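Progress narrative, Year 2. Work on MFS transporter from Thermopolyspora flexuosa advanced from sequence curation to structure prediction during this period.
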Amino acid sequence: MRMHRVAAMDDSTRTRSAAPGPPAQAPDPSASWSAMAVLGAAQLMVMLDSTVVNVALPSIGRSLPAGTAALQWTVGSYVLTYGSLLLLGGRIADVFGRRRSFLAGLALFGAASALCGLAPATPALLAGRFAQGAGAAVLSAAALSAVLAVYRSPGRRRIALAAWSGLGVVGATIGVILGGLLTTALGWRWAFLINVPVAVLTGLAALRAVPPLAAVRRRPLRLPIALLTTGGPAALSYGLIRLQDGVGTPAAWAGIAVAVLLLALVTVRQAGAEDPLLPLHLLRSPTYALSCAGLSLAAAVMIGGTYLAAGYFQRAHGMPAFAAGLALLPMGLSSLLVAVVVPRLAGRLGPARLYLCAAAAQLAGAVILVAGAGDALTAGVALVIIGAGLPSGFVPLYAIGSSRVRPAESGVASGLLNTFNQTGGAFGVAVAGTVAAAAAASSLRTGATAAEAAVDATSAGFAALAGCAVAALLVAAALIRLTRPTTAYPDRP
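Result:
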């Protein structure tokens, strides 16, 4: 569901000097689409893994075993690490080269997938998911950079970026179905192990289809800042998840305090840095800052809602994993259908007003699900409404956020937007999952059955996501005031 717009960088292989390299290559209108096929397949795999595990969570919980908090981390650790390291992934591609970084990220992703699939216990699974997220960040950033370098002519680049943007919707939709199918037919471990042969074949194909690209300069990696940037959101997620043990849990507030300290340190260190990894100065623009906030809220509803819904259909209605995946298919299809008409709608309404409609749809769907969680059909209709609001939220926010940025900073600006997008998904799982777990525990203490507790948990979790949608409405209202209704949609074909 994410659109990645990163300005083309001019590096690919490591250089031994900081001096500029050869001039940029001329547009190549005859570039083969084989490179796009390989890079797109890798990105599809990355996106698929953000949802493939959702319907497998009950099976994982029974097999390892794993508690509610560990299951939340199984989802959240991947999207959190992926999002917080995307900017570092772009920097790595800049320093070590696009194809080389792509292959390294692919190798790490495949090895981490094997660790997840073979994990004997919960700690090994979570370690594998964190490593998967790190590999995905390097792989995804390098892949998109390579796409932009290979397809230089305006027409082919527009087609390539449109295909790239659509991979988010396709990956998320396929993920829940494939996860259910693999879990039902072969077991939950194959939801991870299937990545290993795919990664190997993709790597071999990349050696043939993706060309090495001329380097321009080397840049500092900023590894300490990257680690702090990952540690801050991780500590915050830990604190939020531990709150399900009670608001007086010391570990929860310790995690939140550590997060505040780490994020404050990152802000101080990066605010005045030369060539910063995190371009925090961009947040001084109200429209850009609000776009970042909106992307976090939209991702929280998407990832958090998928997490809740996958468990809901299995626990509240006794569906097997594959059936639960199919039950989520209409949500993905509604997103895909709306994504097709988003450019036209944005041209008529303006990006900010379209985002307002998206937030309203997400709120309406969440409210319906809060009230009607006891009925599977009502829940399915609510999820379709939420799904329809997702692309009409993500796409306008990327357009608004990037429209007020200088062309020279379009790459880092897009990377920071993506960072807020992905980390928002992790917080969505942490908040909605924690509220749901507390509601389920309360229901069980009062004598409710497991199915009744699952209904109560889903209702409470979507109430938290409804709060995210209300906040999104406020963001949309502010963006409407800051942008003219006739603002052109920069990415409209």
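Residues 223-276 form one domain. The longest helix spans residues 410-445.
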